[in-house]
Amino acid sequence: MNPECVLYCTRSAIVRALECNADIDAALNRIEELRRQGKVRVVEMRDDEVQTAYLRAITPSVKKKYPIRQVFGSRQHSASLFARGVPALVVQSASGTMAEDVFPHKESERIVTIHEALSRLFPNK
Asked: pTM (2 decimals)?
């Protein structure tokens, strides 16, 4: 079984000027195609759901030792942009029980965007 991808996103709140949101409109178009194919689920969360989803999504960053706190907010407000100003693409195990990766994130001081992640995960386009 393939891993499941879930996009947490509030389209109206995306801050397009942020580096971590580079090519976000192209990524959202691709996600819509993948959603129709059943390969990506898109979730818009209520305010009371954000923190729980964020805590679940950071698991891979701890295991793989890449920073996401400042991608999805700041040192003081780590999840302030999660799923709102900055959409989050979470790659889950096939069973959906564990997050295996999250995008965007930093690798070697450069940001891996959702657009880049989609190119890696679904290279046939």
From this structure: 0.91
